[in-house]
Each structure stands twice: as C-alpha cells, then as structure tokens.
Amino acid sequence: MLQGEDTFLDGLPAPLRAVNLLSNAGFEQGPGGWTHMGGQNWGAFEVVGAEVAAPRSGAKSARLVVSAAPGTSLPSSKVFGVVQELRGDQMPGGFPETLAGWYRVDRWENDRPDALLYLQVVVIAWGDPRTQALVPGSPDIRNYQIRFVLAGAERPAFALTNARYSFVSRDPPRRGEWVRFEIPVRRAFQEMWGVVPDGFEFIRVLFEARWDA
C-alpha cells in the first residue's frame, strides 16, 4: 500500500511547507490524479479502504500486488505502480526539493534467487534541453532519471544510459508497518547528474512494486 504526504516540502517557512505538487497525494479522492503505465508488463493499481487494509491516515490508500496465478509464472518484468506527471508550469518554484510518502508491505515472498522483487520511486525529467548533453550518443532519448530503490534489491536490475540508481535501502522491506521515505530529489539530481532539472516539459513520478528476472 502507498500513501502520499499531506505536505511536501519539509523544513521550510509555513507558506511553502503547505505546498504539495502531487494531486490527491493521499488517494482520498480515489484514483483521481493518478494513472499507471500501459504495456503488457504493467498492472493496474486499486484504491482501497480500511475494510481491505488499514490506511496510515485518512480513509484510503493505493494497493499494489505483484503475484502470479497458481501454475503460471511471471514474465521477465512485471510492474504494479502509480504514476503522476507534473508540467513545468505547475512548478512556479522550480524543481522540488523533496519527495516524501509512506508505504506498507504486508506480504513479501520471492522464490527465485535470480530475480529481484523490490520497491522503488522513479523521478524522470522529460524535455530538458540539456538531455542530449547529459546522455551523449543517444539522440532519441528525451529524458533522464533517477531510480530510488526503497527496499528489496541490493543491486540495479538493469542498466539504462539515461538512469542513475540511488539506494534508500538495500534490505528487504519491513512488514506490517507503515514506513516513511523522504528523498531530497533536487540534491540527488545535482549530485548524480550534475544539474537540477530545468526547462523541462514535465516531471514523471512513479511509485513501483516490481519484479525483474
């Protein structure tokens, strides 16, 4: 399960502390504002209430389940997640400082030692005019990104020329409790890419529970 923060920017004066750029961050209005990626390897999410799983706060949370039916196997990759895109004109203060939220894992089983089952947050900058300079030799790539692994994987699942990996934790997730994550995304891009996203068309934020064999 996943819930966003009611507030987005911590440690700032009150007028800024109340700003949350994500729409319907706590899923209290159902799936509004959120979507999931298309493609056969992507599964949908559901918004559930306390009758299914106790939310951390409010009445609802997003539920992500990665599983295979009995007698079947998962494909080489399977992703369940929620996605939201933010246009540049939705960020009057520029690229945000912090991305924070909560997740809870109730069940975690992986019977394939050669496969990775993990949780991650991905932040992708699309259309920054400096992309070609940052990702040389890849003229068709229009974005660069950081994949923040929250739990479950000790190494990157695969390499991408336009991606950097940051491990919030390499341990299996704690189970049966809500866990808070707080990622200094602005600083991470500066340190890992040498720039803070600017002049972009939109920022895509993905929260994923995924399997990669």
Give the structure's gist in a few sentences.
With 213 residues, the protein is mostly beta strands. The protein contains three helices and eleven strands; from the N terminus they run βαββββββαβββαβ.
Distance between the termini: 23 Å
Low-confidence stretches: 6-16
The coarse overall form would be globular
The overall average pLDDT, rounded, is: 86
Cα Rg:
17 Å
Q: Write down how many β-strands occur, each being a DSSP E stretch of 2 or more residues.
A: 11
As laid out across the biggest beta sheet, the strand order is: 2-5-11-7-8-9
SSE run: EHEEEEEEHEEEHE
- Based on secondary structure, the structural category is mainly beta
Largest sheet: 6 strands, mixed
Question: What would you say this structure looks like, in words?
Answer:
There is one protein chain. With 213 residues, the chain is mainly beta. The chain is 8% helix and 34% strand. It contains 3 helices and 11 strands, in the order E-H-E-E-E-E-E-E-H-E-E-E-H-E. The strands form 3 sheets. The protein has a 6-stranded mixed β-sheet with strand order 2-5-11-7-8-9, covered by helices on one side. A 3-stranded antiparallel β-sheet has the order 1-6-10, with no helix packed on it. It starts with a strand and ends with a strand.
